[in-house]
């Protein structure tokens, strides 16, 4: 039976274009080596070649079950199975240089042809595990700001307790330095670091620097890509970062690209490695209209306006990317040092954490004290539409208080039962990436609602009780047919509140007046 699975994987690779027919014997022999087999007999007939499913997940499952049975796997757990099937898939792929050569040959025809090839390769190689991605729960919630996307992430496998315990005992490795380093390409992995033998990176030059272009293995949206510095260097949002964004959009005009903010709380999960995220997808924020236009002195050629969005977004438009880079830099520098006590926006605190007024900041700067902790930054997103460059600048602030220790402009505690994690680039644009725990919790909650059962304090879903009691009166009838739609709708509305909490200027009259004060400050020079 094992020979049938080996043949099936070789046929899969051939049909997917990962190997050519001349590579078939070579590939089979490499698979034999990985499986500790010294010989191979081509299965013949139904007896020798029992039916093997044609989909990759089932083929790999058969090979992994054999490896577990023969003791090739250290443990028959998700971690070790992922390490081994990635090794098998890595045996089927062209070398990095071959992939790069083909990518740029296609790029000469069109950037889209190049990315289409590379995206398909990233899926066919099982670097993007299609069969896991389809398990993610996704839906759309209609709001006054447009249709926002909601997803419960189920594609990241959870580590088993044995692997977690082993990882703690292992000597900590500094190689690769992080999950974004180029050294991951071809890396065999370990219990605390994923295998990447089936990973390929395309080199690109942006702002005269060497970067890598790859896809995210978890593809939260269509062609979700990552652009990473070849050097392990910290993220920084500045004029040079803006130039990198537009250089990438010029290379791939069918993609948007953006950066997480460069401060904790409002930034992404990896601030230690300079990188951006992009893709071929139109988020709700990109579709949101400008509701108030304005001009900035010295940059009159640039169209500027406030976007109708729950977070605080300035949109700039121009046919010249350089104009947007210059103006974006001016807005960023202004925002970095902007304090508006009336709007509870503070640019700095001292090292012990005391929030500083404008006067206190000036006094410290004049006295030469350098213990200022910055709080203001920007989440920037660049795209091109019909020959016009667009640049969205989302104003961010990570100040904390005793009432809101995780951030004033972060989901407040009453929303943590749904979303507690950082609001990074993807969420900012209108796509909720919610934790996997919600799947089971919502199923339990459905049962409690339909049965009318009282939820006990000892239960995991008790944290949803107050929220549930708040929304239930809105619905005249709740039954088995509509309960799932109701919960999805209410989760989407919670995420809308998450975005509203993350907005530095609220959507009420006072908040918009505060936004206008900042715009006026930009013209006060």
TrEMBL record:
Belongs to the galactose-1-phosphate uridylyltransferase type 2 family. The keyword Nucleotide-binding does not apply. It is found in: Cytoplasm. It is an enzyme of class 2 (transferase). Residues 19-234 form the Galactose-1-phosphate uridyl transferase N-terminal domain. HAMAP family: GalP_UDP_trans. One of its GO terms (molecular function) is UDP-glucose:hexose-1-phosphate uridylyltransferase activity. This is Galactose-1-phosphate uridylyltransferase. GO terms for cellular component: cytoplasm. Pathway: Carbohydrate metabolism; galactose metabolism. GO terms for biological process: galactose metabolic process. Transmembrane segments: none annotated. Residues 250-457 form the Galactose-1-phosphate uridyl transferase C-terminal domain. It catalyses: alpha-D-galactose 1-phosphate + UDP-alpha-D-glucose = alpha-D-glucose 1-phosphate + UDP-alpha-D-galactose. Keywords: Carbohydrate metabolism, Cytoplasm, Galactose metabolism, Nucleotidyltransferase, Transferase. PANTHER family: DUF4922 DOMAIN-CONTAINING PROTEIN, GALACTOSE-1-PHOSPHATE URIDYLYLTRANSFERASE. It comes from Anaerocolumna xylanovorans DSM 12503. The gene is galT. Coiled coil: none annotated.
């Amino acid at each position: 039976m094992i020979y049938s699975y080996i043949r099936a994987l070789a046929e899969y690779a051939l049909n997917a274009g990962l190997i050519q027919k001349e590579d078939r014997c070579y590939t089979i022999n490499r698979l034999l080596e990985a499986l500790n087999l010294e010989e191979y007999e081509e299965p013949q007939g139904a007896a020798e070649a029992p039916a093997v499913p044609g989909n990759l997940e089932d083929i790999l499952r058969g090979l992994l079950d054999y490896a577990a049975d023969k003791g090739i796997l250290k443990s028959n757990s998700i971690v070790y199975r992922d390490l081994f099937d990635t090794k098998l898939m890595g045996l089927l792929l062209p070398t990095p240089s071959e992939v790069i050569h083909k990518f740029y040959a296609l790029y000469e025809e069109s950037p889209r042809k190049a990315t289409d090839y590379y995206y398909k390769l990233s899926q066919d190689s099982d670097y993007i595990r299609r069969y896991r991605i389809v398990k993610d729960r996704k839906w759309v919630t209609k709001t006054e700001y447009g249709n926002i996307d909601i997803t419960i992430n189920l594609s990241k496998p959870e580590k088993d307790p044995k692997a977690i315990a082993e990882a703690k005992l292992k000597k900590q490795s500094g190689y690769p330095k992080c999950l974004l380093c180029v050294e991951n390409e071809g890396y065999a992995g370990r219990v605390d670091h994923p295998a990447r033998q089936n990973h390929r990176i395309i080199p690109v030059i942006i702002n005269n620097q060497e970067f890598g272009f790859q896809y995210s293995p978890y593809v939260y949206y269509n062609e979700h890509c990552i652009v990473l510095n070849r050097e392990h260097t910290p993220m920084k949002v500045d004029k040079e970062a803006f130039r990198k964004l537009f250089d990438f959009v010029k290379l791939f005009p069918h993609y948007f690209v953006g950066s997480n903010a460069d401060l904790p709380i409002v930034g992404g999960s990896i601030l230690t490695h300079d990188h951006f995220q992009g893709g071929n997808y139109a988020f709700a924020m990109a579709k949101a209209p400008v509701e108030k236009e304005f001009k900035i002195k010295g940059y009159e050629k640039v169209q500027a306006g406030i976007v109708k969005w729950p977070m605080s977004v300035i949109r700039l438009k121009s046919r010249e990317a350089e104009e947007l880079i210059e103006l974006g830099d001016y807005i960023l520098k202004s925002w970095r040092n902007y304090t508006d006590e009336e709007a509870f926006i503070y640019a700095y605190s001292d090292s012990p954490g005391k929030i500083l007024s404008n006067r206190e900041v000036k006094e410290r700067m004049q006295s030469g004290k350098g213990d200022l902790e910055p709080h203001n930054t920007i989440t920037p997103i660049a795209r091109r539409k019909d020959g016009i460059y667009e640049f969205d600048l989302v104003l961010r602030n990570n100040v904390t208080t005793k009432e809101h220790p995780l951030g004033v402009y972060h989901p407040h505690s009453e929303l943590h039962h749904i979303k507690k994690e950082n609001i990074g680039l993807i969420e900012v644009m209108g796509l909720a990436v919610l934790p996997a725990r919600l799947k089971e919790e919502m199923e339990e909650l459905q049962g409690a609602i339909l049965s009318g059962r009282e939820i006990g304090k000892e239960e995991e879903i008790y944290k949803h009780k107050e929220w549930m009691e708040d929304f239930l009166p809105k619905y005249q009838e709740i039954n088995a047919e509509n309960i799932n739609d109701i919960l999805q709708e209410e989760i989407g509305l919670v995420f809308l509140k998450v975005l509203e909490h993350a907005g530095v200027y609220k959507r009420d009259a006072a908040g918009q007046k505060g936004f206008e004060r900042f715009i006026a400050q930009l013209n006060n020079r």
